[in-house]
Amino acid sequence: MQKSSFKTTRGDIRTLVKDAQDLFHEATINTGEKADALRVKGLELLDAAVTKAQDVQTAAFATGKEIAASTDNYVHENPWGAVAVSATLGLLLGMIISRK
User: Fold this and answer.
1) E strands, 2-89, where?
2) For residues 27 and 51, what is the distance between their CA atoms, to the nearest angstrom?
3) Which residues have CB under 8 Å from 20's CB, separation 6+?
4) pLDDT tens-digit profile of 71-82?
5) Cα distances (angstroms) measured from residue 97 to each of 8, 18, 45, 85
6) Distance CA 18, CA 78 (A)
7) What count of other Cβ atoms lies within 10 Å of the Cβ of residue 49?
8) What is the tens place of the pLDDT at every residue in 31-43?
9) Percentage helix, strand, coil, to 5, in the chain?
10) pTM higher than 0.70 for the full model?
């Protein structure tokens, strides 16, 4: 899943939760069967938001595993390149910290 997909999904989740909140607010104003129907619809929207959030979490976990695997492969194939990159990053980080 790409970054734009995460943003879209996050927006979808916000919309679902906002709609559920609106339905619950309307259900507190109404009584009887209409209030019950609104509550049920709100719970369905919240369930959909939770499911979508779990899907995003699963996709992010899978992407993280793929990145870790490709990094591991790179380090095994290019050990000296990995040492050089690590040393350079350590040097830059040390310079930034020492400036403060």
Assistant:
1) none
2) 23
3) 42, 43, 45, 46, 49
4) 899 889 989 988
5) 36, 43, 47, 18
6) 49
7) 19
8) 778 777 877 887 7
9) 95, 0, 5
10) no
- Of 76, 15, 24, the C-alpha closest to 49 is 15
Place of tokens 């995460």: 6
CA angle, 64 then 67 then 72, to 5°: 125
The residue to which tokens 């870790």 are assigned: 68
Contact of 23 with 45, CB cutoff 8 Å: yes
* Token pair listed for 36: 């019950």
Handedness of CA 78, 84, 89, 93 (dihedral sign): positive
Q: Which among 56, 51, 79 is positioned nearest to 9, based on CA atoms?
A: 56
Please give the Cα distance from 75 to 81 (Å, whole number).
8
Residue with tokens 């910290």: 97
